[in-house]
Each structure stands twice: as C-alpha cells, then as structure tokens.
Design brief:
The protein is of the alpha/beta class. It has a single domain, classed as Rossmann fold (3-Layer(aba) Sandwich), CATH 3.40.50. The chain is about 25% helix and about 25% strand. The strands form 2 sheets. Strands 9-8-7-10-6-1-4-5-11 form a 9-stranded mixed β-sheet, with helices on both faces. A two-stranded antiparallel sheet has the order 2-3. Strand 8 and strand 9 form a beta hairpin. Helix 2 packs across helix 5. The chain is globular, with a radius of gyration of 22 Å. The structure holds adenosine monophosphate. The site of adenosine monophosphate has 22 residues, from helix 1, strand 4, helix 3, strand 6 and helix 4.
Length: about 250
Amino acid sequence: MKVLVAVKRVVDYNVKVRAKTDGSDVELNNVKMAINPFCEIAVEEAVRLKEAGTASEVVVVSVGDKSCQEQLRTALALGADRGIHVEADGRPEPLEIAKLLKGVVDTESPELVILGKQSIDGDNNQTGQMLAALAGMGQGTFASEVSVSDGTVQVIREIDGGLQTVSLSLPAVVTTDLRLNEPRYASLPNIMKAKKKPLDAMTPADLGVDIKSHVELLGVTPPPERSAGIKVESIEQLVDKLKNEAKVIS
Ligand code: AMP
C-alpha cells in the first residue's frame, strides 16, 4: 500500500508570531520555520504503517516555494521514502492546494492519503476535505486512531463530546488530530540518509492545474496588549472588585 502524506511549511509553533509593522501580513523574515505539527503526526502515522508492514512506500508532498524542500527533507529523515515538491510561489489557498494534491494523487495513485487536520498558520481546516471531494474519496477527519485492513481504513474520529468510528473503503483521505501519535525526533544518521533520498520537483502545469487566487489578504492585526494587573490587599477587596468593577460575580 502506497501512502501519500501532505506536509506544509509553517512558522515553528514555538515562535511568537508578529504582524509586520504596516499590518500587511505576518512577519516571516528571520523566523524559524518547521513542518506543520499536524503534518508531522501524519508523517509519523505513515511511517508506523510502513514499519508494521501495512504500507510499502511513504511519499511526502509539499506545495510552496523552494524553501519547503527543507520540510520535505525533515519528513524524509523521519522515515518517508521519497519527496515531491510542487513549486508554487506566494500563498496558494486551500482549494488550489487541494487541486494540486489531486494532481499528485492522479499520478501517484496512493491507497491512503494522510494530511494534517489543520495548518497552524492559516487555521483553515479545509484542504483534506476538499481533496477528498475532488478525488471522489471517502474522508476520515480528526483521526485519533487509524487501522488498515482488507481494503478499508478504520478511523476513530475526535468529535465534540466523544469519539466516532468510521470505516472507509480505500483509497481514502485521513486527516490527523493531535492525539493520533507522538512523532519521533529525526536522528542524525537519518538526517544524513535523508539527503540522498529522491526528491522530485513538479510545477502546477505538470499537474494540469492553473493556480488562481480567490481570496485577498487585507491585513493582519495583533491582539490588543493586555493592561497590567493589580494586587489586592484582601479577599474582601477582591470580591468587591469582581462584583463592582469587573462585574463577573453578583
Ligand atoms: P489547511 O486546510 O490549510 O488547514 O491544511 C490542512 C492540511 O492540508 C495540512 O496539515 C497539510 O497536510 C495539507 N496542506 C495544506 N497546505 C499545504 C501545502 N502548501 N503543501 C502541502 N500540504 C498542505
């Protein structure tokens, strides 16, 4: 079984994101970038399927400018076999990413496609669902457990207030939730080995996709600064302030 995993390059989750001074976008200059955490979980799941003998090959794909090859190499160091870089400048929106991934699905014919449930920069939570629709595949989103057997994938989904178990016929799309697994760290020997693994580049034209933008970013605004707190002298003063100033208790 071939597994295709989509990985996105995003600002590292440890970085405190700042808006550019003109408010036109998020500041990306000299900012540490990384694999989107949910995509890292997707890579880990695919590699575990390979280690269990269920998957035969793990292919990772990323859409973006040349710099996203760095995240593909990281995914290769985590255990993926082969990388595909789909070259696209700017910030393609989820529908365009989904169309490009559909092009890769058509050329690679994977039986399972694993994506993150959400990218932590755009918080879109759209690409996996759109890809499943475009490819005519079933989707198991927000997966906290995945098991493959006899041409189906069983997915336990994290939904509000509980878990839902679904069975999808393969090929299918799965998107990962936080509790699916705990990704490993790439070891130094594996980082070295990853440098020699194949990484192909493709253009949207190769995949027959014409990228169009339907959404314009008008601006980003940081949250308002928190004002300094105060120290109260007594419980009575605290209760008085909560009652009469903050008006959060009566
Ligand atoms: P989103 O819909 O943007 O929240 O992203 C959900 C998932 O789609 C991500 O976790 C990735 O698996 C995939 N994805 C989004 N953007 C890209 C990209 N530029 N390249 C590869 N995969 C992507």
